[in-house]
């Protein structure tokens, strides 16, 4: 039992450490004036305007922020700016989102019959994948939240967890309009898997 507790604590520690590392590097890049107005300032301005109850018209794009990629996720993210408006919230949210991808990957591995050691190893390789580090480092993009969302959706499929599936799909769709194509093909895949109870939701 103590060994199992250590395993679960190790997942939490891994998420905490990777979030800290990702957040530190992206913040350091910003402090060293290496961040860019395109796209960091675009989303920072939009989220700030939403948090102030104003229309989020981008002075960079000259359009409403939803006219860019229909990223509805920016509205709930603005709640952080209501508490305290700081661009570092965006770095933290991005770092935490990517780090949380470890959790569904671990349980997906378990679901497919891999032992705990293999599951941990595969989860860690996700964090060490260069693309994960690089997308975290380059400013902020709401697309990043799609990564853990789609992973949790996959976990929900294999574990037949309807509420988790609905929540994950809603979050995934709110990240960017183009991801609706991914969800459509996921529906086709579910149909082929005979998961018709989930297909009807899509």
From TrEMBL:
Kindly list the residue ranges recorded as spanning the membrane.
6-25, 60-81, 87-108, 120-138, 144-163, 170-192
Q: Which UniProt keywords apply?
A: Membrane, Transmembrane, Transmembrane helix
User: Any keyword Acetylation?
Assistant: no
Show the Pfam families listed in the entry.
DUF2079
The record's listing under InterPro entries reads: STSV1_Orf64
Name it.
Putative membrane protein (DUF2079)
